[in-house]
Amino acid sequence: MTETDQLVANATKYFDNGGHDGSRAVRPAIGVAVVACMDSRIDLFALLGLRVGDAHVIRNAGGVVTDDTIRSLAISQRFLGTREIVLIHHTNCGLEGLDDDRLADDLQAETGIRPAWRARGFTDPVADVRRSIEALRRDPFVKEKDSIRGFVFDVATGRLDEVDAGG
Amino acid sequence: MTETDQLVANATKYFDNGGHDGSRAVRPAIGVAVVACMDSRIDLFALLGLRVGDAHVIRNAGGVVTDDTIRSLAISQRFLGTREIVLIHHTNCGLEGLDDDRLADDLQAETGIRPAWRARGFTDPVADVRRSIEALRRDPFVKEKDSIRGFVFDVATGRLDEVDAGG
Hints:
Chain A is α/β, with parallel strands linked by helices. Chain A has helices at about 5-15, 45-50, 65-80, 100-110, 125-140, and strands spanning about 30-35, 55-60, 85-90, 145-155, 160-165. Chain A has one domain: Carbonic anhydrase (Beta-carbonic Anhydrase, Chain A).
C-alpha cells in the first residue's frame, strides 16, 4: 500500500461522512486569492479560517511570484472576481539558501538539459515577501491592486506576522 | 474592515488556540506532493486527511503542469524527499472552455502587452489529468515517477474519482 492509497482511502471517508458543502459557487465567496508556499506545515484553511468556497489557493515552492502565479491571479481576478491578495512565506523554508545556478548546473549535469526556469531560492522570507508585493504591484496583468498584503508564517509557533511593505 | 483583516483575525485565533503542531520537519512526513487546482472548494487537508507536516501542496489555476509546477516538484523531490505525486482536477472548473488566444488578445488590448504565458484552458478535466500525467512522466526534471496518479474531484458531491491514465 502506497501513501497515495491511504490518501484515497481518506478521501472516501470525506465523501462518506457527507460533510462536504456542495452548494458553494465557483466564484470565491470572500473574493480573496491566497499565494503561499507549498510547505507541508501550512494548513491554510485552518490557519485563515477558510470555509469551502471562500478563497482561491495558489501554492508553489517558496510562495514566489512567477509567470504561473500571475496567470492564476489574472484568471482569478478577471473571471472569478477576486479583489484581495494575501501572500504567505514562512520560516524554515526549503528555498532558503538554495542557489539557483547550482541547481541548474546539477540538473544539466544529470539530465543533459538546463532548465528554462530558475529555482527562485532566497535568503530572507521577509525581504522576499516585500519583493513579491512589489512584483504584483508592477505587473500589468494583476488588475486589482488595492489590497495586496504579505505575511510570514512561523511554522514552529503557528503565528502569522504581517510584513510592512511600505507604499 | 477588509476580508483580509478578517483572515488575519482568524490567524490570531489559530495561534491563540495553540493547536498548531510545531514539531514537524521541513521534509514532508509521508513523501507526497499534491498538485491541484486553486479552486476554493477543495480543502486538501480535509479531503485527503493530511496533517500538518505530511505533504507538499502545489496549486494553480487548473492544477495544470507548467514550468512552475515542474520547478516546485523538482525542489520537492530532490531536496525534500517526496516520491509520490497526486494530481487533482475537479468538476465545474473556471478553466473549462477558457480560450487561451482570446484571453491573450483581451489582455493585449487592455494593457498593450501580450502575456508570455498561456491561460491553459481545457474542455475536459479527465482528459487534462491524463495529459498532465503524461507531461510529468516525460519531464526530465521529475525524477521520481513510480507513483504519479490523477483524480477528478466532484465539487458538488465531495467525491474523488481516480483517472485511468494507462501505462
